[in-house]
Write a structure and sequence with these properties.
mainly alpha; TorD-like; globular; Molecular chaperone
């Protein structure tokens, strides 16, 4: 898995992208925003992104608009400082972005070992240049992006997406969003948590429909 990279994309806004490509783009955007403080180019694109949804009542419209509005309301420096306060620093951060913490209460525990086994079976591995362990939410979103948009038909299937999501993301992403939305220093990342929660709810519903098909 490489360093995440993505371009801001309002949910379902581009006629050039089908539904699966749009999902991959949104996972890529989440990966980049959670991996590091967003750079000037990404924030500029996010601030200029349209906020309208493709259909009236789209459940992603409001949280997407809140995320764009938060980017517009804060400076690049303020957002970078917020990222550092929440997730950086020496020692224990204010908030963890690792699945093992939410699933077991500790870092580098059994959930991470299980994840590494699943990634290995899919032929995926963390790049040596990336210091974060594979259960970092950015790494998991990047893995989902690959499972949706990758070119290996033996690996990149809807069933693989569902199994990976329900095992490694769904069980803990909501508690992460709860913690972010409750933190007094979270402003841009509070808005990101709202959008993350809404997007993951859409993904959950989609995979439940797949199970029932």
């Amino acid at each position: 898995m490489s360093t995440p990279s993505a371009c801001p994309l309002p949910p379902g806004s581009s006629a050039a992208l089908d539904e699966e490509a749009a999902r991959a783009e949104l996972y890529g955007l989440l990966a980049q925003l959670y991996y590091a403080a967003p750079g000037a180019a990404l924030l500029s694109a996010l601030r200029g992104a349209p906020t309208g949804a493709p259909q009236a009542g789209d459940c992603l419209q409001e949280p997407w608009q809140q995320l764009v509005d938060a980017a517009r309301a804060l400076s690049d420096a303020a957002i970078a400082q917020e990222f550092a306060h929440l997730f950086g620093g020496v020692g224990k951060p204010a908030l963890y972005l690792y699945g093992s913490h939410y699933l077991s209460g500790f870092l580098n525990e059994k959930p991470l070992a299980r994840l590494r086994g699943d990634l290995d079976r899919m032929g995926l591995a963390r790049a040596e240049a990336i210091p974060e362990t594979e259960d970092h939410i950015a790494c998991l979103c990047e893995a989902m992006r690959y499972l949706i948009a990758g070119d290996d038909p033996a690996v990149c299937t809807l069933g693989a997406q569902r199994n990976f999501f329900t095992t490694h993301l769904q069980p803990w992403v909501r508690p992460l969003c709860d913690a972010l939305q409750a933190h007094p220093l979270a402003h841009f990342y509070c808005a990101l948590a709202r959008f993350t929660r809404a997007f993951m709810a859409v993904e959950t519903q989609g995979f439940e429909m797949f199970d029932g098909a």
